[in-house]
Amino acid sequence: MFELAQLRCFTTVATELNFRRAAERLNMTQPPLSRQIQLLEHHLGVALFTRSTRSVALTAAGRAFFIEAQNLLERAQQAAAAAKRFAEGDIGSVTISFVGSAVYEFLPKVIAEARLKQPHVKISLEEMNTYQQHEAMRARRIDLGIVRSPLLQPGFATECLVREPFLLAVPSTHRLATSATVAVTDLDGEPFLMYSHAAYPPFNELLTGMFRSARVAPQYVQWLGSSLTILALVNAGMGLALVPRCAANVVFKGVTFREIDLGEGVQSELHLIWRSDNDNPAFTMLLDAIRGAVNAGGTA
């Protein structure tokens, strides 16, 4: 099979139609240039040039091969450039999974920042709960996960990027919507909408544990899988709920958000998780972009 070096020799001679000038352009002498052309013709089994003491001309086969040789050299250059850009993280693809509540504020901000810095990287998004993301990460189906609890196992890295308090969401007609202050004890016996353990185990365990420690017993009326659904039911007057502060970006006319002190360490967190051995350059660049977006926003 012929080599790219032989193609470069051929296209240069075909352009100059003069071996001396072609050799000068290639920074070589005429004998080795002639030898490369002869080897190429041997590999192809056709004559590419007609030669005389006064002139060099392309044969019909040479003219046809000239077009293809230029295309091959161009594609080789493009392949080399693409490999370099991929290695630098400028192109490629990254799969990000996320918990649903991340879309209220965090995810749009970091995706916008990533697209600004890496416009040619394809970003695929998949919504999953935290435990589903842990399994997907173990199976190498995703590059980066945005979860509510870290994956604390060998071979995985985790980083807490966002911490924020919970807010109490109450129907606007409820007495707590206008009371001077709101405390955890005010929730005792109140109809309450809680995150289900199957869909949101970190929130379920954190909030039910907080209520047990405070000896407060809300009346759980629904166990639900998303902050949006919970707020919609609060809006319908079905009960009260504790949601991450970012969920207040979702506006319902019949929902009022109140500050509430839930005690030490009871807060909403977003963690990034990834495999320590992930060698996707685009992923590394994306991770840096996410960190930059969060730090710029002051939410970490």
Protein model, in words:
The protein is of the alpha/beta class and 300 residues long. The chain has nine helices and twelve strands. The chain has helices at residues 4-16, 19-25, 30-44, 60-87, 106-117, 130-138, 201-213, 227-235, 281-297; strands spanning 49-51, 56-58, 92-98, 121-127, 144-147, 156-164, 166-171, 191-195, 219-224, 241-244, 255-259, 268-275. Strands 4-3-5-12-6 form a five-stranded mixed sheet, sandwiched between helices. It has a three-stranded antiparallel sheet with strand order 10-7-11, with helices on one face. The chain has a two-stranded antiparallel ribbon with strand order 1-2. Helix 1 crosses helix 2 (19-25), helix 1 packs across helix 3 (30-44) and helix 1 crosses helix 4. The protein is rod-shaped. The chain starts with a helix and ends with a helix. The mean pLDDT is 88.
Question: So how many helices?
Answer: 9
What is the CA-based Rg, rounded? 32 Å
Strand content: 15-25%
Biggest pleated-sheet summary: 5 strands, mixed
Furnish the topology, listing elements before pairings:
Layout (H helix, E strand, L loop, with lengths): L3 H13 L2 H7 L4 H15 L4 E3 L4 E3 L1 H28 L4 E7 L7 H12 L3 E7 L2 H9 L5 E4 L8 E9 L1 E6 L19 E5 L5 H13 L5 E6 L2 H9 L5 E4 L10 E5 L8 E8 L5 H17 L3
Parallel strand pairs: 3-4, 3-5, 8-9
Antiparallel strand pairs: 1-2, 5-12, 6-12, 7-10, 7-11
